Amino acid sequence: MIFLRRQLPLLITLITGLLFAGQYYVPHPASEQMLTSATKWLQIIGGFALILGVTSLFHQHAVKIKRQEAGWGYSFVLYAGMLGTIAAGLWADGKESVDGAMTAFGWVYNFMMVPLQGTMFAILAFFIASAAYRSFRARSREAAVLLVAAVIVMMGRVPLGEYLIPLSGDVSSWILNVLNSSVRRAILIGVSLGAIALSFKIIFGVERSYLGGGKE
Amino acid sequence: MDATVLGAWVATGLTLLIFSFLYKDNPLFKLAEHLYVGVSVGYIIVKTYDTVIVHLVVKPIVENGEIALLIPVAIGMLMLTRYVPKAAWLSRYAFAFIVGMGAGLAIPRTISSFILKQIEDTVRPLMSMTGPDGLAFSMNLLNPGSNLNALIILLGVSSVLFYFFFSIEHSGAGRAVARTGVIFLMVSFGAGFGYTVMARMSLLIGRLTDLIEFSDASYGRPTIWLLILMIAVLFFLSRRDQEHPPDTH
């Protein structure tokens, strides 16, 4: 039984890992076809992973309502939003518009989801600005560099900034295209090396936490 | 009522409910927040159902007879065994398949795109060919491809990588290189911060533009009426909280 519960999953990881790592080095139509199918398979399996997430959310709010915890009434709002959107989406076959005409699902997207999402992220502008006001003090040379770079980039992104400091647009582009990209590149190289090491550990069964705990 | 006019009222109302958080955390914001989560999850469910179940599973199987697609469906179903404690171990097959495939796909592609390609773009010739046998060193900072910028990028990448390399002590010359790396990192963090703030500002301008547009008489001036209503409700809630402070225990 331990073979089925513990060793077979590790064997599946080893075989699929080596197979798809090797696929990259086989420039044959069959290999390309395998990659196309595998990508499709991943999308399908990922769809089932969504069920796990949604049921978890449903369960969490059901418990909140059952125990009448603080703010349990909002859980009904969440349910109403979710079920209403699902009903509108299924009615419209998942399409936002048909022959140029907006469906009920498109209406929910345009007049509910877009304003909610846009405003939710827009209010972050206020909180980022207020946090910056409190924490952006040039206490050290490094903090001063950070502050100056942030101000130049902000000034360089708006016409008013460029009007007040004519060079800010060019300096902002230079910071973003040269200094920022060099740091992003270094971080990307470092993260990639870590990702490769982790991938090898997973394939060869050194890293097993993705299998979860529980009974062997 | 026209769907667009109704939409204008709903969009304006929801926008104002979220903006009410700028005053303080209040029940109106919480209502909009929970509605946002619900609508977003509902939207993702419908889109996933349409893309995955309808277009990737049902249609290919029914119309083209691609029976092999039942295999990923079966693997996906194994994930749901998590809800049956005695059979939960079966879900390991699904996770093993996904993780193994992901790890296998990642290794060569990461090496190629994120390591070799990035190193190739970093280690560029320090001089440019200008003619049959002429060499030049371009100093134009505004051209990201100039030789001077190539040198700066090389310095930035090397020093930042060195800063994150802890196998040797950062002392002497190593300390100077690590400090250079920190300066590059700080510039990048500052630039990232500035860029994010301006992106959020852009969203804010978009929402305010909509509010201004919906204050037009052709929509029934929802911005004005709903703003008055919201202020009244917030005032009422504030008075109620003063008279009956919420129990914090």
Describe what you observe in this structure.
The termini of chain A are close together. Chain A contains seven helices and two strands, in the order αααββαααα. Chain A is extended and about 70 Å long. Chain A has 216 residues and is mostly helical. In chain A, a hairpin with a 2-residue loop joins β1 (97-98) and β2. In chain A, α2 (29-67) crosses α3 (72-91), α3 (72-91) crosses α4 (104-135) and α5 crosses α7 (168-203). In chain A, strands 1-2 form a two-stranded antiparallel sheet. Chain A folds into three domains: 36-69; 71-134, no CATH class; 136-205, no CATH class. Chain B is mainly alpha-helical. Chain B has a domain at 37-123. Helix content of chain B is 71%, strand content 2%. Chain B has helices spanning 3-19, 27-64, 70-79, 91-122, 147-163, 173-213, 222-243, and strands spanning 128-129, 135-136. A two-stranded antiparallel sheet of chain B has the order 1-2. In chain B, a hairpin with a 5-residue loop joins β1 and β2 (135-136). The longest helix of chain B has 41 residues, at 173-213. Chain B is extended, with a radius of gyration of 29 Å. Chain B starts with a helix and ends in a 6-residue tail after the last helix. Chains A and B meet through α1, α2, α3, α4 and α5 of A and α1, α2, α3, α4 and α5 of B.
Helix and strand topology:
The complex is a heterodimer of chains A (216) and B (249).
Chain A: H1 2-23, H2 29-67, H3 72-91, E1 97-98, E2 101-102, H4 104-135, H5 141-156, H6 159-164, H7 168-203
Antiparallel strand pairs in A: 1-2
Helix pairs in contact in A: 2-3, 3-4, 5-7
Chain B: H1 3-19, H2 27-64, H3 70-79, H4 91-122, E1 128-129, E2 135-136, H5 147-163, H6 173-213, H7 222-243
Antiparallel strand pairs in B: 1-2
Helix pairs in contact in B: 1-2, 1-7, 3-4, 5-6
